[in-house]
Every structure is written in C-alpha cells, then in structure tokens.
Design brief:
The protein has 219 residues and is an all-alpha fold. Helices cover 17% and strands 3% of the residues. It contains three helices and two strands. Strand 1 and strand 2 form a beta hairpin. The chain is flat, with a radius of gyration of 24 Å. About 3% of the residues have low confidence.
Length: 219
C-alpha cells in the first residue's frame, strides 16, 4: 500500500481529472439512449453520428521500424518485445498522432511533456527525428542522428539480430496507401511498385466482382 500511495500521490492531478471526465463521459453516452426511451420499434440503439476520415492525417511512420524490418501481420507467434522505445517521433506540435507518447505530460515537471518517465525526470528534452512527412535516405537514418528504436541515455543498443526468414505462405495481405495519379505504392518489402489499374487514367473501372478475385497474371 505504501508503493500504491506514492504512485497515487504523484498522479493526483491525473486522478482528479479522471474523476471529473469519466462521469461526464458516461452522461454523454447515456444521452444517446434518450431518443429511444419508451419508443415502440423492433430495434433500439444509440443515436450516433460518425464522420469517416481515411488517412487524414496520414499514418505516422517516423520512429517505427521500416517496412523491411517489420513482422508479417500473418505471424501468430509471440516473441519477446524488442528493446528500446518505438513511438511516433515527430515534433510535438505535429498533426500526426497528437495523443501519442511524445506528448505525455510529466506530472512531476509541470509544463514538460516527454515519452518516458526517465526523460521526464531528467534534464533531457524531447527531440524529434524529422517532420514525419518523408523518409530521407536509409529508412533508419534520421535528421537528428538518433537511434531507432530509441534507447535511454547511457543504454547501448544490443547487437541487431538477424531477421527471421518468412516463407511465402506466411506473408499476409497488407493495406497500403497509393498515389491515385500514377498507381504507385510502397510494398511490405520497402520497394516501390506500380499497378496501372489504380491510376486515374486506367482504361476501365473495376466492378465489385473483380475485387473478389485475384488479379490476372502480370499485374
């Protein structure tokens, strides 16, 4: 209980904010049910309004492993977590992942935000890798010369392990963004590919039936 008390004392401002926001959040969720109160209908549910935005803003890839070093999504094993920190490492005022680790408030240092407790408690300030819009050169190279993953000050990165070979049967079906003007996209292997029927000048539009069958050979 002594340890729990120390943690609760440190995080008292956050606990107070949670006690204020949770009741209001529950009230807002409950308000969605009021419209169906005492109504006679077969199906009842909440009245919600969803605005779907795809890739706005774009996915943050800065600070994460490049495509060549990522595990296939079809793998089902559970290896140990790799050492170091992987998170969106763009400027703190960037539109990418605004609620990410880089903007965690340091409760013992009012006004400071940092991704880890060690950085919060030290005199070190958060330094972004790049603006997040484009990789430049080697996927692991950064404008500030920092490591990916990020290691604590004085912590030496371990020797890189050889990537585990993945058989064709293990490769999953990834989803990637593409340029609608040219049909170009970056595959899971980090290489740029072009698919002509994705471009705006494609000769014929695809039907929903064509989306359910494999593409013809050569595409």
């Amino acid at each position: 209980m002594s340890s729990v008390g120390d943690v609760a004392l440190t995080y008292q401002p956050a606990i107070e904010q949670l006690l204020v926001l949770v009741p209001q959040g529950v009230a807002m969720v409950a308000a969605g049910e009021v419209a169906n109160l005492n109504t006679k209908q077969d199906y009842k549910g909440q009245f919600l309004d969803f605005n779907l935005n795809l890739n706005l803003p774009q996915t943050c890839s800065t600070g994460f492993l490049p495509a060549q070093q990522q595990r296939s999504m079809s793998l089902t094993d559970f290896p140990d977590r790799p050492p170091g920190e992987l998170y969106c490492r763009v400027p703190q005022d960037s539109p990418f992942n605004v609620r990410g680790a880089r903007n965690y408030p340091c409760l013992t240092r009012p006004g400071k935000r940092a991704p880890t407790v060690k950085m919060c408690e030290s005199d070190e300030n958060y330094a972004p890798l790049n603006d997040g819009y484009n990789w430049k050169g080697d996927p692991n190279a950064t404008l500030s010369g920092q490591d990916v993953p990020q290691f604590a000050p004085g912590e030496a990165p371990p020797q890189a392990a050889q990537p585990r070979p993945v058989t064709p049967a293990q490769v999953g079906l990834p989803a990637v963004a593409y340029d609608p003007a040219t049909g170009k996209y970056v595959g899971p292997d980090g290489r740029v590919y072009t698919q002509g029927d994705l471009a705006g000048m494609a000769s014929s539009a695809k039907t929903w039936q064509q989306l359910l069958v494999p593409p013809p050979a050569g595409n």
